[in-house]
Amino acid sequence: MTAQSFLLVALLALGIQLPAASGTRKGEKPGACPPDDGPCLVAPDQCVDDSQCPLKMKCCYHACFRQCVHKVSVKQGSCPQDRLRCLSPVQHLCHKDADCSGTKRCCLSACGRDCRNPTRG
After folding, report:
1. What is the pTM of this model?
2. Alpha-carbon distance 109 to 74, whole Å?
3. What 3-state class would DSSP assign to 10?
4. pLDDT by position in tens, the chain (length 121)
5. SS3 per residue for 39-73
6. 68: buried, middle or exposed (CB in 10 Å: 19+, 13-18, 0-12)?
7. 3-state class of 95 per DSSP?
8. 99, exposed or middle or buried, with CB in 10 Å at 0-12, 13-18, 19+?
C-alpha cells in the first residue's frame, strides 16, 4: 500500500468515526425523539433533519414518517439490552425518561418500556 493510499484510508476511517465520537450529527439538536408507538400513516416526510424544525423541536419519526415534534430530555447512561422475548401483550409503564424517578431511564424491554437503572455510556 502506498503512503497516499494509507493516508486516504486513515482519513476515511477518521471521518466515519467523528460523528459517532461527538454523539451528534451536523444540525442535530440535543434531546431525543419521543417513542413512535402510534399507528402508521402514509405520508411524505416533512423534514430531513433537526435544522428544519422550530427551536424546541426535532425531526423524528412519528406515525412512521419524519416530522417536527417536541423533543424529550434524556438522562445519562444507556438502556440495558433485554434479550428476552415477550409472550404477553406489550405494556408500556413509562413513555420518556422524565416519567422515571432518580437516574432511572425509560427503556424498551421485551414486553414494553419500563424504568430501569442505566448502564454507563
Report:
1. 0.61
2. 17
3. helix
4. 443 333 333 333 333 333 333 345 667 898 889 888 778 988 999 999 999 999 889 999 999 999 999 998 889 998 888 888 888 888 899 999 999 999 999 998 888 999 999 987 5
5. CCCCCCCCCCCHHHCCCCEEEEEECCEEEEEECEC
6. middle
7. coil
8. middle
